[in-house]
Write a structure and sequence with these properties.
Blueprint: H1 3-21, E1 33-37, E2 40-43, E3 48-51, H2 54-57, H3 66-76, H4 89-100, E4 106-110, H5 113-131, E5 139-143, H6 152-156, H7 161-164, E6 174-177, H8 182-189, E7 194-199, H9 215-226, E8 229-233, E9 257-260, E10 271-275, H10 277-280, H11 301-316, H12 319-340, E11 345-351, E12 354-359, H13 364-372, E13 375-376, E14 378-380, E15 384-387, H14 395-410
Parallel strand pairs: 3-13, 5-6, 5-7, 7-8, 8-9
Antiparallel strand pairs: 1-2, 2-3, 4-10, 9-10, 11-12, 12-15, 14-15
The structure holds pyridoxal-5'-phosphate (PLP).
Pyridoxal-5'-phosphate binds near residues 114, 117 and 235.
């Protein structure tokens, strides 16, 4: 047996074992990734992949970024966990880094996007119940086509039935309005029964839907007029993904609360919410009561070391500007493909490095063929092929990916 035969056999063996020991909830591609470097991944059999999906918008600095790896190695040798019974230096530093780069006055850390949204919802409910003394304002308003996570509360506020069905009865007091429809949002918020309105500045999993100019500003005005907490779910759009630190910057409007995760840890699991001083009151501890919200692992030294350094490296290496330039390049290369394959492709959309190529048919087969040919992309909203590379990606990386995609499209 050659070394290559052995590693292929090892990969097959691992996949077979996975079939026996893992819950069968995922729909995995038959590949076991072994290591990465920048925008390249190598599987256990040694096959190289060009990764233009970066762990579904997570690995902001690419794989095994030398500087981030060194910081994490040092932190691992120093301190991993203490709990929130004490202050944590790395957590304070990460919160400061986030407040300096966003609208937020205060930050709470957790471990994932769904948890961040859970925290945001709890904040909004308690803000109305306890701070505003309006316990009748229970309603959570969300948008059709949205995706906010997989916990029992976040599936309830996710506006896609496929994620909700089978899990009922779901959280009550949730209303869905069409994304982009300011009149529908206004009509429901003016009743003053809602504690919050939650939405993504770009609907990512829903198919890279960019709202029209003025929508977020309109929502801001209605939320101000009705004292409704405006929550932006920046789990996917945040941390430079769209070429700006936060997706909301494109619309010149700030929320009361935003949720973050994905890119924040550069691959280390972390979630967070940022809030204005006023909104943060919603989760403020009150003497005599219980701690209103907490997480065992939330804000631990390792995760926060990752977050601070991801933010620092993005800034020092000019990666926001790079995301904008490389994102524009993806857009122009997508446009060429749309012109070249009018029977297969409909249009492209997105901002920065969150880009979707809309197909006439389901994008799954193209996504699988791309992987077979060594290109990793992902699917959003069924019909949309998503490019979401690391912020360190280059125009050459994009061109290599487009060449593979082009040949896949050509061969049907
Ligand atoms: C906008 C948005 N919110 C929330 C989530 C859930 O994040 P997590 O999987 O970390 O819980 C996702 C994940 O894709 C997301 O895209």
């Amino acid at each position: 047996m050659t070394t290559s035969d052995e590693s292929t056999a090892k990969q097959n063996e691992l996949i077979e074992t996975a079939g026996k020991v893992l819950l069968k909830n995922y729909l995995q591609q038959p590949t076991v990734m072994a290591r990465g470097s920048g925008v390249e991944l190598f599987d256990v059999s040694g096959k190289r992949f060009l990764d233009l999906t970066s762990g579904i918008s997570v690995c902001a600095l690419g794989h095994a970024h030398p500087e981030l790896s060194a910081c994490l190695a040092e932190q691992t040798g120093k301190l991993l966990h203490t709990s929130n019974l004490y202050f944590i230096e790395e957590q304070i530093t990460a919160a400061q880094a986030l407040t300096e780069r966003s609208f937020a006055d205060r930050v709470y850390f957790c471990n994932s996007g769904a948890e961040a949204n859970e925290a945001a919802l709890k904040l909004a409910r308690r803000y109305q119940h306890v701070v505003r003394e309006s316990p009748e304002r229970n309603l959570i308003v969300s948008t059709e086509g949205s995706f906010h996570g997989r916990s029992i509360a976040t599936v309830a506020i996710t506006g896609q039935d496929k994620y909700r069905s089978g899990f009922g009865p779901l959280l009550e007091d949730v209303a869905m309005v069409p994304y982009g429809d300011l009149a529908a949002a206004t009509a429901i918020l003016e009743k003053r029964t809602a504690c919050c309105f939650i939405l993504e500045p770009i609907q990512a999993e829903g198919g890279i839907i960019v709202p029209r100019a003025g929508y977020l500003q309109g929502l801001r005005a209605v939320c101000d007029a009705t004292d409704t907490i405006l929550i932006f779910d920046e789990v996917q759009t945040g941390v430079g993904r769209t070429g700006k630190w936060w997706g909301y910057e494109w619309d010149g409007v700030t929320p009361d609360v935003m949720s973050m995760a994905k890119g924040l840890g550069g691959g280390v699991p972390i979630g967070a919410i940022g809030a204005t001083e006023k909104a943060a009151e919603g989760l403020t501890f009150r003497q005599g009561g219980a701690v209103p919200h907490a997480s065992t692992f939330g804000g631990n030294p390792l995760a926060c070391c990752a977050a601070s350094n991801v933010l620092r490296i993005i800034e020092e290496q000019g990666l926001l500007a790079n995301a904008m330039t490389v994102g524009d390049h993806i857009a122009s290369r997508f446009e060429e493909l749309v012109q070249k394959y009018p029977d297969t492709l409909v249009e492209h959309r997105g901002r920065g490095l969150l880009r979707g190529l809309v197909m006439k048919d389901l994008a799954g087969p193209t996504y699988r063929r791309c992987r077979e040919e060594g290109l990793l992309v992902s699917v959003a909203g069924g019909y949309v092929l998503r490019f979401a590379p690391a912020l360190v990606a280059t125009t050459d990386n994009v061109d290599e990916g487009i060449a593979i995609l082009d040949s896949v499209l050509k061969n049907g």
